[in-house]
Amino acid sequence: MSLVKVAVLTGGGDCPGLNAVIRAIVRRSEQRHLEVMGIRDGWEGLVEERHERLTRQRVSGILHLGGTILGTSRFNPFAIEDGPERVMRTLQRHNVGAVIAIGGDGTLSIAREMHALGVSIVGVPKTIDNDLGGTDYTFGFDTAVSIATEAIDRLHSTAEAHQRVIVVEVMGRHVGWIAAYAGLAGGADAILVPERPARIEEVIEHVERRRKEGRKFSIIVCAEGAMVDLGEGAKLISRGRDEWGHERLGGVAQSVAHAIEKRTGIETRVTVLGYVQRGGSPTASDRVLGTRYGVMAADLVASKRWGTMAALRGNEIVAVPLADATRSLKQLDPRIYDVASVFFG
Known about the structure:
single chain, 345 residues, alpha/beta, Rossmann fold, 2 domains, seven-stranded mixed beta sheet, 16 strands, metal-binding, ATP binding
């Protein structure tokens, strides 16, 4: 029996659990009589024809590794002349019958557009922010929350010892899933997220109420995209734009800390977790979820369910249209924030 060749790529930011997905795709593809070709560096690898054969031996021992053995990029073939045509020529030249695209909003938006041009393609949702539609959770989110929670746990002791306020900035450009979950798990005294614009006066009230009650330290968790009114209306703290036109967020924690210290006189420090949330070994939960997604992706190829994506609904892995993932950002469930707010101050 001749094997159908499927190309696998990982695009966008790296994320704990990517290698679990790749491994599962290869192992399931072997059972489904599919030959797997790994594309180097995301969509750019399809344009530049950088690839390697993925075998059981090649993916052995990668389950626990962070990052992606295929490399990644934020390359968009639709942003260059003849980009989509070059992708399709690569697929034809190497007799590739299908593509599995693993990524977030950008990667899956490209996948949706390539499918509209006639490419046989399926998707796997990936983002530590957990902001993709169509699925309850994405792999990488649990790892990011675990790392942030551990950091908050460690900061509690030093904050209490020095009677300080510590503001912890976590990832979350447009949504507050990581901030809310890590803040709730870590016992934060206030959580600032993009979905709930906050006034600095509210944060200061929490801090001062704690001091009056004898608790002379506080932990504030904020997403990098949190909307905070520091006296001039709620707005993002931006450091300009990157080469793609996206705002470079970050610095909100510093602004919040400065305002708290200035208004209260309490020594206030900042910890920005940044890319440490992306790195390292994925949690057991993310390894399992990534593996389930990878198996489903290979099954979708075998059954020729093009234009669909593996998704988690409840405890089931199902197929949903790629359009469901990219139609709109999945914002933080307000019920989660309401639970966390019970413990503010």
